[in-house]
Amino acid sequence: MEVNADQTKYMVMPLDQNAGQSHNIKIDNSSFERVEEFRYLGTTLNHNAIQEEIKSRLKSGNACYHSVQNILSSSLPSKNLKIKIYRTVILPVVLCGCETWSPTLREERRQRVFESRVLTGIFGSKRDEVTREWRKLHNEELNDMYFSHIIVWVIKPRRIRLAGHVACMEESRCVYRVLMGKPNGKRALGRGTR
C-alpha cells in the first residue's frame, strides 16, 4: 500500500500547547510525521488556529461580498436572486473547510454578525410605520425574511456528515482507524496533566 506524502502527517492538539513530545506514528507500513500545522480541505490547521482560520474565511467572505455589493444593493434584481447570489457566491467562500472547525461562541457570533451584514445589504432598510423614518432591520426580521438556516446551523450538519462519511469507510482506511480505533498499550498510573 502506497500512501501519498501529503497524507502521512498528523497533528496533536493538546489542552496544554507545550505538552507532548515530537515523535512519529507507524500504522502498518506507513509512517506518520508529527507536524505543527497542515492544510486540509483548503484550511490551514494548527494549534488553536481555528479562530484565525474563521477570521480569514470571514475576511475572504467580506471581499467577495464587496465585489458583488453593487448587485446586492441594487433594486433591479429580485430578493430571491440576491439570496441565490449570497448562497452560491459568498457563502461557499466563508464555509470552505468548515467541516474541520470547532468554533467557540465568539466565532459563532462573528459568523452571525457577518451574515447579518450581508442580509442587511440584500434586504435594505425598512420604513417605520409610526415615525415614518428609515431604519435597519433587526436580526429577527432578517432571519424571517431569509427563510433559511443561519450560518451557524449550516456548519454543524456538515461536521456531522464528515464524521459519518469517515465512519462508513472501509476498516482498512487509516482515517477510519484513527476515528474508530482504540490505542494499544496501557495508560500510565496517576492523573493526566492538564
If strands are numbered along the chain, what order do they take across the biggest sheet? 1-3-2
Describe the main β-sheet briefly: 3 strands, mixed
Based on secondary structure, the structural category is alpha+beta
How far apart are the first and last residues' alpha carbons, in Å? 38 Å
Q: So how many helices?
A: 7
Strand residues, percent: 5-15%
Question: H/E element string?
Answer: EEEEEHHHHEEHHH
**Which bin fits the share of residues in helices?**
40-55%
Overall 3D form: elongated
What does this structure look like?
There is one protein chain. The protein is an alpha+beta fold and 194 residues long. The chain has a domain at 47-180. 47% of the residues lie in helices and 12% in strands. The chain has a three-stranded mixed beta sheet, with no helix packed on it. Strands 4-5 form a two-stranded antiparallel sheet. A hairpin with a 6-residue loop joins strand 6 (125-127) and strand 7. 11% of the residues are buried.
Topology of helices and strands:
Blueprint: E1 9-10, E2 25-27, E3 30-34, E4 37-40, E5 43-46, H1 50-67, H2 69-73, H3 79-95, H4 105-123, E6 125-127, E7 134-136, H5 139-146, H6 151-167, H7 174-180
Parallel strand pairs: 1-3
Antiparallel strand pairs: 2-3, 4-5, 6-7
